Amino acid sequence: MRLEAVGKRYGPRAPWVVRDVSAAVPAGGLIRLEGRNGSGKSTLLKVIAGVCLPSSGRVRGRPHVGYVPERFPGGLPFSAREYLRHMARVHGLAGTPADRRVDEWLDRLGAAGYAHAPLRSLSKGMCQKVAIAQALLPGSGLLVLDEAWTGLDAAARRTLEAAAAAWAAAGGRVVFVDHDPARLAGRASERWQLDGTGRLTIVAGDHVAPPRDRQRRDGLDL
Amino acid sequence: MIALLRYETAILARSYRWLFPVITYAFLVSVGFEGQTPLAEGLDWSAAMLVPAVALLTRMIVCAEPDAARAVVGAAAGPARAHLAALASAVGAGLLLGLAGAVFEVLTSESVERGPAGGPAAKLAATLAHPAVLVAGLAVAVICVLVGSAAGTLCNPPLIRHQGMAILSTLCLVVLGLAAGVSPAAAALRYRGGPGAALPHWPGAVPAITALGLAVVTWTVAALVAARRDSRATAGG
User: 3-state DSSP call for residue A145?
Assistant: First the structure.
């Protein structure tokens, strides 16, 4: 999968949010996207995920996509399980195996007790779990996580970290943004940095905080 | 695409957003109810009222999903396809509504057979024995569903995002769709199968093709815009 001179702006006279981004998203890649608030991280993630087309350039070879948006406010007239069953079918899964996967992910993320609760009634964290379960359903392809860890409890944060690492290890592609620099520390294959002008610099490898630091953060940040 | 259609239809059905268009349609159809009118005229009226009903249904479904949920479905299946599924679910609901309107007209209008007025069962039997009037009426209904869908598609997100502008322009296009000479719905309704009011009112090929063309063009434009633009509200970060 490749981004070729990708640019995005919200209107013909609007300023470029992201400009001239060319990069490969290799199979097995776990890519951390970095940048300050307002630097265009969410916009670039949306273009990568195919939520919207780029205003210039193109994205080639995009596989099937699971996408977790920055905020998932629920607001649909379904229970968590009904929504996920619909999404499983939209992702191309079918029948009993799809339903089993839905229950499996609800359980792993610690949301099984809320499977029958209406989405409207769920807390922010629980909604986030539903959005994450939805994105993990296809199990392969491209996984795009836009601050997906925000609002999760410690156990679910670990589950998502492990799931993202396993996704990449199984030959999938993962692109993620997270405000915590220790997120998936040492495991990112590339770091992409957006400067304030919408241009991207690619930094290979990873040299972020040691694991001990990560544990401390996860313990505190409830 | 089937999964997308099921998803969008489920949102429309479960959110009770269909309620307002359906009540509006029921009200408009009952306003036109005069008792002893020929079936062909009754069918024309109930078909015409599908234009506002389907325009409303379209607005309801394209505004039903929160941005984040739309983004998630767009990533999984493509934003253009997701938008097309939403538009199609409104058309599906409109066709059901048209069928219900037709049944109402068959049961309440003048029987297509001359002779002593029978009960609803006799009228139904007479209509099915001479189906041309009903089939012609349903053809007009399909044209009106397409025109209503085109109006609703053109005047609502993602093409017109501002709520007031969207409602105002939908209203204008609905009136235009029913009254203006160029509208295929108006043309289909104006067509009369001769001096006998009881004869089937076939809509003619030109309005049918124009309505289909309008729907295809507006759907394509809306799907392309849905894929290209994204509300800035969820941008940032």
Answer: strand
